[in-house]
Write a structure and sequence with these properties.
There is one protein chain. The protein has 290 residues and is of the alpha/beta class. The protein is built from twelve helices and six strands. The strands form two sheets. A four-stranded parallel sheet has the order 2-1-3-6, sandwiched between helices. The chain has a two-stranded antiparallel sheet with strand order 4-5. Helix 1 packs antiparallel against helix 3. It is elongated, with a radius of gyration of 23 Å.
Length: 290
């Protein structure tokens, strides 16, 4: 029988071998990335440049190089980006696609999921989300969809993108003015939303606005169309939802990453949260700025 000291020495030697193996694994992965970069004539500077030009494309050489390790390191179920629109959700999509996570077409996602999800019918939600790794924007960016996602897909990760409330509101207004060709949003009415907010299918934008502007009193529902683009109303709604999300995950902090991507220079926080190898950290690509 081996002595205690002999067993201890063997255990220490095994642990050291494991440490060395991990180092070698990381080194080999980094060599593989560099090999792909060299083979395809692709550099980190080219990656940054292509993203800065706003092409909306994932450089395939980078993704091809890092995806196997990223997916192998995946120790969770799904990734749900649950911040409001205009908080950097497009940037998050760019980052997640770069690392090789499978994501749906956003418009297809909105068409298939929004109406049923906000009607508390989660059959299509469950079926659709089962086919992908990560999601952003509607219907995940509003309401309590994150609660359903957490229940239906346990052991998932949630990313709450946020920015200062006033900055978010200004960005939202600017984006909608540009998207729907509006001059003065302060005078818009329900009729304007029905007529001018043409996105996806008739009534889609109207339904979203109606949900955001609704209040409840004495068992009755009131749609406050006079609050359409009212700064105080929108900022209060935005702030309360972010607080509710943080409160919901208070006892499960490992599930939630709160991040202001406009203030991040690199993808380090995202990589560490998703267990992406740290050698794959890159400059933060900022997409769809307004």
């Amino acid at each position: 029988m081996k002595s205690y000291d002999e067993l201890k020495a063997e255990m220490e030697a095994t642990q050291q071998q494991m440490v060395e193996a991990k180092k070698n694994e990381r080194a080999n992965a980094l060599k593989e990335v560099k090999r792909f970069f060299k083979e395809f004539g692709f550099t980190a500077g080219m990656l940054k440049g292509s993203l800065a030009k706003g092409r909306g494309e994932t450089p395939p050489e980078f993704t091809k190089a890092v995806q196997p390790r990223v997916i192998a390191n995946k120790n969770f179920n799904k990734i749900f980006c649950i911040g409001y629109n205009k908080t950097g959700t497009t940037t998050l999509e760019t980052v997640l696609r770069l690392y090789g996570y499978n994501m749906p077409n956003q418009q297809q996602q909105e068409i298939r999921l929004s109406k049923s999800t906000f009607s508390t019918n989660y059959d299509e939600f469950t079926s659709f989300c089962s086919n992908y790794d990560a999601f952003q924007d509607m219907p995940f960016s509003q309401g309590l969809t994150y609660v359903a996602a957490d229940a239906i897909f346990p052991n998932s990760k949630f990313i709450l993108s946020e920015r200062p409330a006033n900055s978010w509101y200004e960005s939202l207004c600017k984006f909608h003015k540009k998207t729907f060709n509006l001059d003065d949003i302060s005078k818009l009415t329900e009729a304007d939303v029905l007529e001018k907010f043409n996105y996806l299918y008739p009534g889609y934008s109207h339904s979203n606005k109606k949900r955001l502007l609704s209040s409840f009193e004495n068992n009755s529902t009131k749609v406050n169309w006079d609050k359409l683009y009212d700064a105080d109303w929108y900022i209060d709604m935005y702030t309360r939802r972010n607080e509710e999300i943080k409160r919901y995950f208070l006892n499960a902090p490992e599930k939630l990453l709160v991040i202001d991507v406009t203030q991040e220079k690199t993808t380090e926080k995202i990589c560490r949260f998703l267990n992406v190898p740290t050698e794959f950290i890159i400059d933060m690509p900022h997409s769809n700025k307004t």
